[in-house]
Amino acid sequence: MAASTHDPVAEQAVRYLVDTHSPGGTRIGWLMIASIFIEAWDLYAISFVLIYISGVFHPSALMLGLAAAATQGGAVVGALIGGWLSDRIGRRAVFIGTMVLFVIVALAQSFAQNMETLVVLRLILGLPLGSDISNGYTYIMESMQHGKREVMGNRWQFMFAVGEVVSVAVVAVLVASGMAPDIIWRVALGLGAVPALAILILRAELPETAIWLIQRGRYREAKRVTKEMYGDPLDMLPDQDVERPRVKLADFFAHLRENPTRWRATLFGWIACFAQSGEFSTFAFYIPVLFTLLGVTGHLGIALITLCLYVFAAISGFVGPQITPIIGQRALSIAGFGIVLVSLIVAAIAIYTDHLIVLPFAAAAMLWGHYWDAENVMTIPSMVAKPQYRGTASGIAYVFVKLPAFLAIFLFPAFFGAIGKGNATLFTALFPLVGLLAAIFILPEVYGYRED
Questions:
Q1: Residue 215 needs a FRET pair 20 to 30 A away by CA distance; which of 59, 348, 365, 444 works?
Q2: Other C-beta atoms lying within 10 Å of the C-beta of residue 245
Q3: pLDDT at res. 23
């Protein structure tokens, strides 16, 4: 039995699922958001152990930067491939495969015997990271109701902060224990496989999303899944599968322009993804380096100060989703980018005038704003996309997160040294300025968005 792209029965079933059911959706949402913890662990653990890796392998500055940035570069490719595969072969197959690959490669990198091997392994490690995030947002958007899915999607920054706090705390404990430098970095990086394995085990029993099954015309399986999860057999669907045309990338870009709200929201998402990633990957990622260069305190003291900063950031990451239903996505973005912009200008002035005591407070304010402006940049493009293009939409949005992260982490240290600490901090303020303008002039209010 064949069916065209437009299938009123399938569309009715998808709308019914999104509007009616949420039991189990919260648990699924947290299981998907939990993968952010793994990425945060890797990103911040490497920032703290670079000094030990450098002491063991004595790499060039370029190679050291590449080791830090490699997972971001791999994630660019992983996001594109994973998002497309999520629409093509299903959500479940992608998230199982990505977690298995991450566990294997995360362990392997801790046994690297030279910088070249470490860089290659970290590049491969980025593939499942990028793929899993783009795929996870499809699960969130297809497992939770309007209003609830936006809040869950916005929680990724809270989970990111939790991962940073835990990674910094673990590294601080390893340093305080007197462990050998060559062991510290191996343990810190290899431990990322532990939460990944836990997530893999918890996700193992999750079924394919019913919405994806409906979009693929696999009605019998969709009815079985909804019966098991919600006790609802979706009686509006026939008991016979249909053939549905496969998703094409060219069709995704055409569907963006069908709806002005979808197009403006997606365009904002791309700009905001780039802006928030740029501001974080330059100033925030190098907070430990910045404090060290400014002579604020020793290495263990830097870890403790940074730990306090990210506890503060975690509070911001928790508060943002809670107030989203009250103020909406647009106001959250405007407030977040505005706070970051002001904080970076204050930090630059503090560096110019040698008032270094101001830096920790400016950094704290910057992180508070960042965790608001970054919260919805993946949620919005994923939410407004049609279900058949949702994986692709999430993947492309995540490319705009990871590409500037790769470039900034790789190149910013050299740029940092070339133009000076104050000038580099002021330059970073351009990112939140762009994000703020996009939030004001491009983003429509999309909280509770429903496809007409």
A1: 444
A2: 12
A3: 47
Q: Hey, what amino acid is at 197?
A: L
Average pLDDT rounded to a whole number, residues 176-205? 90
Residues 11-44: b if buried by 16+ CB within 10 A, e if exposed: eebbeebbeebbeebeebbebbbbbbbbbbbbbb
163 CB contacts (<8 Å, ≥6 apart)? 36, 37, 38, 39, 40, 41, 44
Q: At what angle do helices 61-89 and 91-109 cross, to 10 degrees?
A: 160
Tell me if 167 sits within 8 A of 40, measured CB to CB.
yes
Spans of all domains in the chain: 34-206+247-441
For residue 107 the two structure tokens come to 């362990």
Residue-level pLDDT at 4: 44
- The span from the first CA to the last CA of the chain, in angstroms, equals 28
Q: How far apart are CA 360 and CA 31, in angstroms?
A: 33
**What residues contact residue 48 under an 8 Å CB cut-off, 6+ apart?**
167, 168, 171, 188, 288, 303
315 CB neighbour count, 10 Å cutoff: 14
The span from the CA of 377 to the CA of 390, in Å, is 14
CATH number of 34-206+247-441: 1.20.1250.20
